[in-house]
Amino acid sequence: MTKRLVHTMTYDAPVDAVAAMLADPSFREEVCRNQRATSYDVRVEGSHGDPMRLRVEMTQPTDKVPSFAKKVVGSSTTIVLTETWPALDRGELHIEIPGKPGAMAGTVVLEESGGVTTETVTLDVTVRIPLVGGKIEDLLAQLMGSAMRAEERTGKAYLAR
Description:
The protein has helices at 15-22, 25-34, 67-73, 133-160, and strands at 3-11, 39-45, 52-61, 76-87, 90-96, 102-113, 116-127. It has 161 residues and is α+β, with helices and mostly antiparallel strands.
């Protein structure tokens, strides 16, 4: 089974400013803190406009995860997010949960219109557990939506500085 998640974030800034923000390690670290990460490591190779690769590894508490899923994820979970940006406005996104039977993969697209940039993230969420896999896919999609809303709030504050 696979669950598709499409999430849109909107920024009152041109595409090059949003791309620069997404390539800034300090922005990514701030996002980790706003997503309640207890530890994180952010690495960026290259820059937007050139091929760029971003890797974020973070550990988050699972205190807000329902009990049926806690048996699978434990009291905390580590997430490894990798983004590859071959162009300023388009990237590939992979999210792994080491040691767990779930993963997410998809795309990130930036589109500017009238000085406003829309970032659209499309993810396929897959959990390989018989019987409860679909429920956990739904939960992961909800948690990713919440994480992206935190990223958007952080991005709007970052761009307003």
